[in-house]
Amino acid sequence: EIVLTQSPVTLSLSPGERATLSCRASQSLSSYLAWYQQKPGQAPRLLIYDASDRATGIPARFSGSGSGTDFTLTISSLEPEDFAVYYCQQRSNWRYTFGQGTKLEIK
Amino acid sequence: EVQLVESGGGLVQPGGSLRLSCAASELTFSDYNMHWVRQAPGEGLEWVSYISSSGSTTYYADSVKGRFTISRDNAKNSLYLQMNSLRDEDTAVYFCAAQGVVTYYFDYWGQGTLVTVSS
Question: In chain A, what residues touch B62 (CB-CB under 8 Å)?
């Protein structure tokens, strides 16, 4: 089973700052990785798929990079609405596992 | 606007059963592979089950295999999750999600339905 490990667990930043979130896989995923954003009481929202493609309607400040086992989600300049929990997800097999999440909080 | 609406959650005793439903609208349901994902209180996301667009192929997480059954009725634009032999650790909000035909990830999500397993 592929395990996704996200770091850091919590990231404290201020609006306007740059956020860098990491996701590491226990096996190579090629580029089969997605990122989701979840706010309290809401369903997750797809941000990035196949490591670097932005989903429909996602602002350009969100970008993804990486391949193999190491992936990064970058938010170039944080807006107040970006403070949330972020999950990575893999689809290289049929189990679609998620990472444990990174909470992005306001400093 | 695409809508996925889950129903059927509630309180059930350990060992009991529950059937969740997910009603889809404003999408060609029969084109979409579908999934169930759950989230225990205060915890992260856990993928539960997959069903292909035709219903011919299903997959399950090890934690629910042999106890849960995913199914769909394309004529009714509906997805189901039959949950048997429920355990305390099955307590969670259960989301249905549609796998995008372009992205192959979870493009659309319902709002979730809470299942509480407790005596």
Answer: 1
Cα–Cα distance measured from residue A55 to residue A89, given in angstroms and rounded to the nearest whole number? 14
Residue A100 sits at the chain B interface (C-beta within 8 Å): yes
> Could A91 and B112 be called an inter-chain contact, meaning their C-beta atoms sit closer than 8 Å?
no
Listing DSSP states for A27-71 in one string gives: S--TT-EEEEEE-TTS--EEEEETTTEEPTT--TTEEEEEETTEE
Distance from CA of B47 to the nearest CA of A (A): 6
Burial of B44 per CB tally in 10 Å (0-12, 13-18, 19+): middle
Q: With CB atoms and an 8 Å threshold, state whether A95 touches B45.
A: no
Judged by CB atoms within 8 Å, which residues 10-69 of A form the interface with B? 34, 36, 38, 42-46, 49-50, 53, 55
Tell me: the pLDDT tens digits for B48-102?
999 999 999 999 999 999 999 999 999 999 999 999 999 999 999 999 999 988 8
